[in-house]
Structures are given as C-alpha cells and as structure tokens.
Amino acid sequence: MSEITKEYKNQVKELYKKSKIVLTDEELASIDYADFSLSNIEEEGLNLILYVNNNRYCAKEMVLLPNQTCPEHMHPDLENGLEGKQETFRCRWGEVFLYVEGDAPLDSDTISVSLVNGKEDYYTAGKEIHLKPGEQYTIAPKIKHWFKAGKDGAVISEFSSPSYDEFDVFTDPNIKRVIRDR
Amino acid sequence: MSEITKEYKNQVKELYKKSKIVLTDEELASIDYADFSLSNIEEEGLNLILYVNNNRYCAKEMVLLPNQTCPEHMHPDLENGLEGKQETFRCRWGEVFLYVEGDAPLDSDTISVSLVNGKEDYYTAGKEIHLKPGEQYTIAPKIKHWFKAGKDGAVISEFSSPSYDEFDVFTDPNIKRVIRDR
Fold first, then answer.
1. Name one Pfam family in it (chains A, B) (predicted).
2. Contact between residue A27 and residue A62 where contact means Cβ atoms under 8 Å apart
3. B159 and A54: CB-CB below 8 Å?
C-alpha cells in the first residue's frame, strides 16, 4: 500500500464536512482510506467511517472523492452458513453512479461514467442506478457491483447486514483488501 | 388516536430540516407520527421515517420534538426463534437522554430529565446515556429503554436488526402501537 497523503485525507474530511454530518474527532481520526492495494487511490479507492458492525447489522458513512471509483466486488455466502452481505446505499451529498449486475453486460459506451483507464476488464456490472441526495438502492447478496462518484464527489450512508469484508470477492485479481472492520 | 395537527407535523419537518439531512418529498409525506394511542403526542410520541426494513437489517431517521418522550418498551425474542431487536441510536442533531435498564432502579430525583406527569409508574429504566450529535449507543435485545429529547428536540438515526414493532412490549398497558413498518 502506498502512502496516503495528508492532502488526500483532507479532501475526504472536507467532503464529510460539506455533507453536514456530525462526526466525532475520534471518528475523523480513524477514517479507513482503502486503496485496495492498487496504489491508485485517487482513481480507485473508498473512504469510510464505521459506525457499528456487530453480528446483527452494520452501518457506515462512506466518501468518494470526485470521480473516484470503488472497484467491482460482491459479497458471497459464507462457509459457516451466513448469507452474503445485503446493503442499502443512501446518497447524502453529491451524486453517485452505482452499477449492479443486470440482464445485459456492461456497455462502456452507454453508461454515464468512464471506466478506469486500463482496468476495463475488471468492471462487468452494467445496470446503472444514479443516486442523488435522499435517494437509495438496496443491493442483494452475491450481486457484483461497483460505484463511481460524480464530479463533486459523494457522501453515502451504508445500512447493511454484518460486514465481513475479508470475504469480499473482487473482479480485479490484483486487489487485496486490508481489513479494518472488526 | 387523536388527530395530529398540521402545526405538529410542521414542527417535526422543521427539525429534519435543521439537521440538514436530505429527505425526498415522498419520505416527508410519509412520516410516521406515532402517538402510541395515548392521545398525548406532544409529551409522549415519536416521529420517524423508515429508510429500509428487510429481513436482514433496518434503518430509520427519528425526530423527537423538544422534551418529547418515547415511552418505555423492549424488544422481546420472537416465537419463531428470531432474537429480539438490537438497535444503535446515533444522535445527529440536538440532544437526547436515553435510559436503559441498569443495576439500579430509576431515581427520578437524580436523572437529568423529568418524567411525564402522571405516568411515573410506566418508566423504570434508569441508566442514563446522554447523546449529543455524533454520539451513539447500542441497546441490547430485551433491555427496557425510553428516551427524551432535550429542550431543542433531537434527530436520531437508528441502525438495527429487523423491526417487528408489532411485538414491542411497552411498560404502559394503555399503549397500542399502530404499525406502519411493513
């Protein structure tokens, strides 16, 4: 994992501030700046504050910087019998383009955003959901998905079943998620 | 259930607005103004917007008007084997005084708020948790709890396991919860 710069961290904090969501100093000091070991965080990354993650439910507050993409992944059923993670994204500020597996394959010519250069093979889900503040969408377990912020970035609440991020399956084989969830 | 006045509804909407949480027109039109059939909503009541409630998790945005109290209740285990509801309250705006069952009984002389006049018998949980914006607390299943807003009211996010409000057990036998959850 390459070094996350202070400037990058300040940009993330600035977006939380713009959303008017009140966060404690402790929360701001413990933001998870996830680069998925791709060393390309300004393009592919995700920033999040974990509010709660127990064996019943999970809630996070996520930030994407302008045009930043969270790489495609899915939440599988677990070997211990637990069903894969189900999650609801609610846009709080800015806008986000969410892509989930649909009937048709991803068509990079017709979706509203551009794919990360050179990573086209690692994005396959093509059903577009455009979320503006106050809008939300629920992603079923085991459905591949990825999402990209609009030009101003986005603040997104996630309500979900418990997070076991260590079991997430990413389409890009180069991804290694460093886990901070538990 | 007595009529909820337009003025009351506007006060609730005003608090959501003050919190800067973006809500859709549809959500604002479908606020659940719960008076628990006590016909005393300005003192005992709860106002909420249900974001999502499925068989995995639930999320709500709640409002209490100034000094309004949500009556004491608990979430029992269900007969079908489901564990009682666990919930995390996160204060977003204003302040709320939360009371949960603790080692000592409720002492109305030492807690920070006053009990609803004439309803003293229906409030028994006495462990006080004072939540300001950005602060949160998780209530275990089957633990009696009630909560009262401070002088400016409160906006509180609830993250939880699924809501089955029809099975909630209230301490006040006069309470009948009209269910809007599913």
1. Lyx_isomer
2. no
3. no
CATH number for A58: 2.60.120.10
Q: What average pLDDT does chain A have?
A: 95
Q: Is residue A1 part of a domain?
A: no
**Which DSSP letter does residue A67 get?**
T
B180 has pLDDT over 80 = no
Indicate whether B118 belongs to any domain. yes
Q: What pTM was estimated for this model as a whole?
A: 0.95
Residue A16 DSSP label: H
Q: Which of B49, B60, B61, B159 to mutate to test the interface with A (most CBs of A within 10 A)?
A: B159
Q: Mean pLDDT check: name the lowest of B52-66, B68-82, B164-178.
A: B164-178
Query: Given a cut of 80, is residue A1 above it in pLDDT?
Result: no
Partner-chain contact A52 B88, CB within 8 Å: yes
| DSSP letters spanning B32-55 | EEE-TT-S-TTTB-EEEEEEEE-S
Sign of the dihedral defined by the CA atoms of residues A33, A39, A42, A43, in that order? negative
Q: Quick check: is A177 in a domain?
A: no
Backbone angle region of B48, left / alpha / beta, with phi > 0 → left and psi within -120 to 50 → alpha: beta
ipTM score here? 0.95
Q: Do A54 and B138 touch (CB under 8 A)?
A: yes
Torsion over CA of A87, A92, A94 and A97, rounded to 10 degrees?
20
Q: Specify if B127 maps to a domain.
A: yes
Structural domain total, chain A: 1
Residue numbers in B near A52 (CB within 8 A): 88, 136, 138, 159
pLDDT digits (tens, 9 = 90+) for A107-131: 999 999 999 999 999 999 999 999 9
B127-152, pLDDT tens digit by residue? 999 999 999 999 999 999 999 999 99
- B-chain residues within 8 Å CB-CB of A140? none
Q: Which residues of B touch A (CB under 8 A)?
A: 19-24, 27, 51-52, 54, 56-59, 83, 86, 88, 90, 92-93, 133-136, 138, 157, 159-161
